[in-house]
């Protein structure tokens, strides 16, 4: 897999780079302190290189997820949560990421497993982030009523499995359909609610009940 890292803190960026360079699964790596540096890298700007996964640190800016998805629409986004303080978890909750990993949990083994899970369409989410999302749901005010999109019975089955964290392959196996069909159903569900990622969809469904 090809991986990009955007992390303004040099010590953390260097540590992530050192781990990633040791992983045989990572074929090409770009590490930068900000998005401008990544987008200006010769292989990106001139060569058309696109990462399979972008690893983003919590200090990378409020709109980093939107800008990354604009520049790399087919790349997965893995968000590194700096800590368990409220501000750290709130930043993670607002990020439209495809997966999360706690900074204090980052090891070579944990990192490669999380990267592979994200690429497989799963939604790795540490307990701390999941608990914070649920707490936001419990304490938030009821959202305004709005017209809900129509979901077919099959799409409703897919939604239930998405909320359980199933990957596309697991959804296909549980429902007895092809992997291609599972991907098509997931894409249709996300499109109907205008969700850019599985994580955003799960948070949205939890928030809206």
Indicate the topology.
Layout: E1 2-6, H1 10-22, E2 28-32, H2 35-40, H3 42-45, E3 53-57, H4 64-71, E4 76-81, H5 86-94, E5 99-102, H6 108-119, H7 127-139, H8 153-163, H9 168-175, H10 179-192, H11 198-208
Parallel strand pairs: 1-2, 1-3, 3-4, 4-5
Keywords: DNA-binding, Transcription, Transcription regulation
InterPro entries: CheY-like_superfamily (IPR011006), Sig_transdc_resp-reg_C-effctor (IPR016032), Tscrpt_reg_LuxR_C (IPR000792)
Domain HTH luxR-type: 144-209
Quick summary:
This protein has helices at 10-22, 35-40, 42-45, 64-71, 86-94, 108-119, 127-139, 153-163, 168-175, 179-192, 198-208, and strands at 2-6, 28-32, 53-57, 76-81, 99-102. It is an alpha/beta fold and 209 residues long. The protein folds into two domains: 2-131, Response regulator (Rossmann fold), CATH 3.40.50; 139-208, Winged helix-like DNA-binding domain superfamily/Winged helix DNA-binding domain (Arc Repressor Mutant, subunit A).
